[in-house]
Amino acid sequence: MSDTLTSKLNPLSLPLRQQLGLLALALLGLTPFWMGFLYAGDQGLLHIRTITIAMFIGMFAMSWDSVSGYTGQISFGHAVFFAIGGYGSALLNLGWGVPPVAAVALGTVLAAVAGLLIGVPALRLEGPYLSLVTLVAPLILLQIFIFRSDVFGGELGISNPDPLVSTSGFAQETYVFFYVAFALFVAILAVLLAVTRSDAGSVLTAIREDEDAVAASGLNPAKFKTFAFVLSASVGGLAGAVFVHTPMASPTPSQLLAQTVSIEVIIAAVLGGMGTIVGAALGGMFLSVFRSQLSNVGLTVPGLDVSVGDLDLVIFAVVTLIILFALPGGVLRWGLVAGRKLIGADSAAADGGRTPVEQTLEKFREFFRGGRDD
Amino acid sequence: MVNEGSQNNDGRCSGNEPEGDRNIVSDVRANADRRTFLKGTGAVGLAASAGCLGGSSSGDAPSGTFTVGVLTSHTGTENPIGNSIARSAELAAEELNADGGVLGNDVEVSVKTTNEQPQRGKTKYEELTVSEDVDFTTGVFTSEVLLNIMDSIASQQKVHMTAGAATPEASTMLTEDYEQYKYWFRTGPVNAHFLGANMVDFAEANFSDMGWDSVYVLTEDYTWTEPVDEVLRNQLADAGVEVAGMKRYAGETSDFSTIYDQVEASGADAAFVAMAHSGSTAIVQYAKQQRPFAFGGIHVPMQLPSYWSLVNGACAYGITQNTATPESEITEKTVPYAEAYNEKVGKYPVYTGYIAYDAVKQYAAAAESADSRNPDDIVSELESSSFTGTAGTLRYYGQDEEYPHDIVYDETGENGVNPLWLQWKPNEDGDGGSQTAIYPDNLASGSYESPPWV
Prior knowledge:
The complex is a heterodimer.
Chain A: H1 2-9, H2 16-29, H3 31-38, H4 42-71, H5 79-96, H6 100-123, H7 129-147, H8 149-152, H9 170-196, H10 199-216, H11 221-244, H12 253-256, H13 259-273, H14 278-294, E1 300-301, E2 306-307, H15 312-326, H16 331-342, H17 356-369
Antiparallel strand pairs in A: 1-2
Helix pairs in contact in A: 3-4, 4-9, 4-10, 4-11, 4-13, 4-14, 5-6, 5-11, 6-7, 6-11, 10-11, 13-14, 14-15
Chain B: H1 24-29, H2 34-38, H3 44-49, E1 66-72, H4 80-98, E2 107-113, H5 118-131, E3 136-139, H6 143-156, E4 160-163, H7 169-176, H8 178-181, E5 184-188, H9 192-210, E6 214-220, H10 225-235, E7 242-249, H11 257-266, E8 270-275, H12 279-289, E9 294-299, H13 307-310, E10 319-322, H14 334-345, H15 351-370, H16 375-384, E11 387-388, E12 393-394, E13 420-426, E14 433-439
Parallel strand pairs in B: 1-2, 1-3, 3-4, 4-5, 6-7, 6-8, 8-9, 9-10
Antiparallel strand pairs in B: 10-13, 11-12, 13-14
Pfam families (chain A): BPD_transp_2 (PF02653)
Protein name (chain A): Branched-chain amino acid ABC transporter permease
Main location (chain A): membrane
């Protein structure tokens, strides 16, 4: 047993793709150092902050992927959990003086409870009901925030709570919160990979592929879906809670609750590779960094008299659409397949080659057609 | 003038918080100073070990070229609010350079767009202050972006002079922690509380002559109108105006017929409004239906000098509050600035342009007067200065007043700024229309005319 564990933990005995993943993670962790060689002065600090924010977007995308990417139950409003975690933690800290670490923990619990409240009834329904419920949930929450703007600050949001770690000066602040984000990123990645690669993860994947078959085998799909949903809500709430305790974010609707946040997270996960966790993390980080870089492009779009930087969201969306058309399985899957071909280790897909996106779309089609053809 | 008629990602408006009873949002800001005692207790070694990058130069007085950092919403020519901020700051810099620069240094302007997104606004603010090490910053159109960079302003300790966002929350932060936030000033517009106060002052001075004895208050349901609503609710009746009704309507309203039915049924002489996003829909439908009541108040779209052609004259006889019109001689600088801007851009500026231009010029004057580029020296200088800008006399409320570092609102216009009111009137030759200043009296180029169908 211990031999097995030792061999699993030994990087040299891991498959090549996992070795490359660890190498990428190590490079990410060393960002402050290699950024120093690439950029002189304070420019490097700003890039480190960009990557810090990107890691949080990656965490949000992983949170979404752990439920929607695996079960095929698309959540259109995952921002609701980021907001509950973030706002909950901020209000506890600011209103009641709860220390940041405890506030983050309580904010995470609040998000988990919200996951239970929304997920249990919605997930027991078939078809796209979860999508419809989650589509409406953040809209309701936003209206509550606006209606009770005395508590939630309305569209302006609330002020920044205490930082998770106290720092002195811009440079120190940048380094410290980079590693706060990195530690959380690695922890969430590890937990979600462990869960989705476990037997429970296999059941979740099976639910996406054929929920009826899972039920027929004596397993309760609703139980597994609820578990995934609450786990996902907790992870999203945790990331949202920590995010607002960094100097890079504030508890505001546009950063945590707006519909665009939910949509961007879906795009990120699908772009990176739905149902892979790692792909979602990569997609989230790419989305954030790519948009940030686009915003610095000063070129003017001919005929529109608008700079490329002003159109970052539009350009990002167009590029995303092109990538999705070209690589419907996501960039990570494409990379793995291309890599296998390169080293001559190509293998056939066990599921007939359908991507999670195609499987999920098929489920939605079945629902709107009024059931299966067979 | 007025608030930020802006649209956020989620399709809603950035607005302003009520300045009245302090709520949890405000109360919690008092906790911000708890951070200070924690400083220095965490992860110093980590930062030191990773200290291959230089730290920021926060608090140090820059040297060499005098650089102005501008945060604007969008800069496309079709976005007059953002474009006015950017081009006006550049115009001010050009004029300063032609006059020998500031403290013997050339002036440069660096413009960054926020796209009205708080996260992006913060990143761009850091690029300006950390990477580019600008002397000071101005602009910021939306309140949401402004509040998101307040902590960064405190951290970077560089003077910021807001030109656009109207939330009173920003000055409230100074009330609670002056030392931390003292680098923030609002050059304009007057904050959302005073936007309402100015409506009351206008009503008191003019309504009886205008025949507006009774008004129906219509405000769009965005946060920025909350302080306006509160002031109107509490003070309009005291000004001798009969309030026939008050309604906050959904900002997404596309059919005003029912609302206008209510105004009509109330017998009000006029709809007294506060509108930004929904303003064009409201005025076009009002004009088409030729309702038997007059229309005006704070109507952001009507402030645009080119608005008549944009709505095919639907704004005829409407009135709105504004910072200035291109022809209004608020000070000796107003018209020359508007003409210079028109020459540079090919259009006249909107209210944010006057304010951004004033901010750059006032900051430069303060640096010259203090003979220093040190932010603390500039803060002291600005606090005590009285500067003649294009929008009026620029003075700031003091540390112990209700809205520290907010531009002083003064109904006389002698010791602060006083918004002017204009009416859109058809040209005599029947070709188009123009903005006619109607109040205050010393700036009025005409008097109010009731719509012919009323």
